[in-house]
Amino acid sequence: MSFIENLKNCWQQNNSLVCVGLDPDLLRLPSHFEKTADSIFEFNKDIIDATHDLVCAYKPQIAYFSAISAERQLEKTIDYIKSNYPQIPIILDAKRGDIGSTAEMYATEAFSRYNADAVTINPYMGYDSAEPFLRYKDRGVILLCRTSNSGAGDIQDLIVNGIPIYEHVAKLISEKWNANNNCLLVVGATWPNQMTRIRSIVGDMPFLVPGVGAQGGDVEELVKAGQTKNGTGLIINSSRAILYASSGADFAAAARAETIALRDTIDRFRNIS
Amino acid sequence: MSFIENLKNCWQQNNSLVCVGLDPDLLRLPSHFEKTADSIFEFNKDIIDATHDLVCAYKPQIAYFSAISAERQLEKTIDYIKSNYPQIPIILDAKRGDIGSTAEMYATEAFSRYNADAVTINPYMGYDSAEPFLRYKDRGVILLCRTSNSGAGDIQDLIVNGIPIYEHVAKLISEKWNANNNCLLVVGATWPNQMTRIRSIVGDMPFLVPGVGAQGGDVEELVKAGQTKNGTGLIINSSRAILYASSGADFAAAARAETIALRDTIDRFRNIS
Lengths: 273, 273
Prior knowledge:
2 copies of one chain form a homodimer. Chain A is an alpha/beta fold. Helix content of chain A is 45%, strand content 16%. In chain A, the strands form 2 sheets. In chain A, strands 2-1-10-9-8-5-4-3 form an 8-stranded parallel sheet. Chain A has a two-stranded antiparallel sheet with strand order 6-7. The two termini of chain A are 27 Å apart.
């Protein structure tokens, strides 16, 4: 089954647009965890067990693992999800981007070594930097379009022929890069007007949406701007607000409660009949 | 000493603009190497020993290591250069790009875990994605500007207010991001006209130049387009043409000969009095 079909099933089965971002920071783990790399897997496992029926995807962020030589913990985290909750798609957040044989190596890293179902990549280098990922027809390729950060506009908002670059990127991907129907876009929750424009360009292409929770994106505005007619189309990520909802022994229950709260807030504004 | 000072010293000391890119592909190692991750370090070590007096930098490409779980081989390769040839700057080619705490983790990966002297990053997400790297004042931050690949123009050549995006990026970096004087740009060897324009915008800011060798960039055109008045300003990378100059037991001698040939070709067009 393709990544996008898998995602659609998970949206329906768990009836949720929430994605839990796995950004395990040793300095922020609950105090009863030892500050060693092994703790990262144990922490992730507890978060996953506490939220698996509430999410449409998990999104491990690779830098939190690679910065501390914890690649093995990332492998174990993905294996754990695949073994115990195989219906939940896994997005490796890596924002890779390079060309030719190097891009092939990055695709091998994401799709073979880590066995992720989808990966985030950066479109700045052009089509031939994306193609080695796109040729994996059953995997998702999630391209940065309009990111959630305050500096996003430095380059993404420059105006070309009357429209901003992020709209050109959305058009390029929708019209030329999506031949295998496996493209998605990153569109930040913090920019609902831009999200409305992008939705009008790309039809039902799914969006990965960072920027709620710690970054402050407004859920009502983003859901109204980005959802498709059937009330899906969005993978709304929250990382720190869920992972670190409590620093005590109750962190998993607190993460569950936070995930439910986000799901329910989202659902208030979804087109659900 | 800062990365750029270190680079200037190495340009002068070895009197070379050549950078050897370390892209060790198990499938292409000389036949007497076993096809295991350990061979990667042994291969790199032999290449480094054979070329250390001919280069201004080494550039390991991280995907060639991470795709096959060979992070340890990357650590050992960098340690080997630092221990034996400490005057040679090491560029980690990783093309990272993310925001806030995640960008901090990527900077930790490059500058603390691997102890690289410089790292390549992607500017698409804007200033706040670069800042966690830029704050390492003694390290180099090498931003993609005009890349060497055929699809580079898909986004980089879009015209904003009469000038292409890559020129906007060059201006932004030169005027706003370079407060610590630790920025460099990636400018592909395959686009000498674009390189001439970028050189006119950024003064003496050094360029990392991929695209000679296997990618076919013309050395005369690129050197004339990109060099500074004193005949430096360029880190001209060659990877596969040097690493795989021979597939036999003489690979290290062949790599040395190929490096000398590239250095000498470059020198024919340098402003050297």
